[in-house]
Amino acid sequence: MTETALDRAWAASEAGGDAETARFWETFAATELFLAIDPATLSDEAPQPLTFPVEGAETALAFDTEARLASFMGDEAAHLTLSGRALAEMCAGAGAQLGLNLGDAPSATVLPLSALAWAAEALRQPIEAARGDGVTLTKPFGAEPDLLGRIDARLAGLGPALAEAWLCGAEGEGLLLCLRLAEPAAERAAVAALAETARFAGGERAAFAIAVLEEGDRRLEAARRVGFGFEPAAPQPPAPLAGPPKLR
């Protein structure tokens, strides 16, 4: 079975320390998961997860691919799709732990309620887009290669919504990630996604703040001069049109 991003993040967390564990939770939060649902509740307004008692605790089941869900639960297993961030919040609220990728996946594990509650609390901490008014931008001194890689990976997920991104120092305030969006309506989703990286990469405080700027803003011009630039994802060309079907 194909290795997934969660498999790699879990293996790194098992072999590493706090930084690798935080990166696992960052990956978990951003991953689309397939949650097994009690089929008897599918017609209800709010379907309930299928749970089993494991070591005295109610345990929900989720998988990061439909193939893993089908392998463990059967091809017709009732399920819902939701993000890891939403699932952590749900489990923490319900007092349930989570069986993740149970079966033969490298990341097969049971995430305890205490860990899910911690992740849910971390994800609730607000990181709003900062205005950055009156801040002097500098080169991003102290930005580690690992942080640059994590930001780059998250920016790639924004696709064509991102026009440009520059990581700068903000005098007296740490690091500031300056964005210009090609699609202004994507601001809320972009800030939320990048905020997860900021939270889990930063330990006790966020690793960076976020500022969404517009063309012509003097702060954007300064960011271009001193910041570390990220290459936006290139738009994918349309697939070639297949030939016409044969007619009988």
Question: Main traits of this protein?
Answer:
alpha+beta; 6-stranded mixed β-sheet; 8 helices
Question: How would you explain this protein's 3D organization?
Answer:
By secondary structure, the protein is α+β, with helices and mostly antiparallel strands. 37% of the residues lie in helices and 22% in strands. The chain contains 8 helices and 11 strands. It has helices at 5-15, 18-30, 66-73, 84-94, 113-124, 145-156, 187-201, 218-226, and strands at residues 32-36, 51-54, 57-63, 79-83, 97-100, 109-111, 137-138, 162-170, 174-181, 209-212, 228-230. Strands 1, 2, 3, 4, 5 and 6 form a 6-stranded mixed β-sheet that branches. Strands 7, 8, 9, 10 and 11 form a 5-stranded mixed β-sheet that branches. Helix 2 (18-30) crosses helix 4 (84-94). The radius of gyration is 21 Å and the shape is elongated. The model has no long low-confidence stretch (mean pLDDT 86).
The radius of gyration is 21 Å
- Strand residue percentage: 15-25%
Count all strands and give the number. Answer: 11
> Average pLDDT value?
86
Q: Which word captures the global form? A: elongated
Q: Would you kindly provide a brief summary of this structure?
A:
The protein has 248 residues and is of the alpha+beta class. It is built from 8 helices and 11 strands.
Strand-helix topology:
Blueprint: H1 5-15, H2 18-30, E1 32-36, E2 51-54, E3 57-63, H3 66-73, E4 79-83, H4 84-94, E5 97-100, E6 109-111, H5 113-124, E7 137-138, H6 145-156, E8 162-170, E9 174-181, H7 187-201, E10 209-212, H8 218-226, E11 228-230
Parallel strand pairs: 3-5, 9-10
Antiparallel strand pairs: 1-3, 1-4, 2-3, 5-6, 7-8, 8-9, 8-11
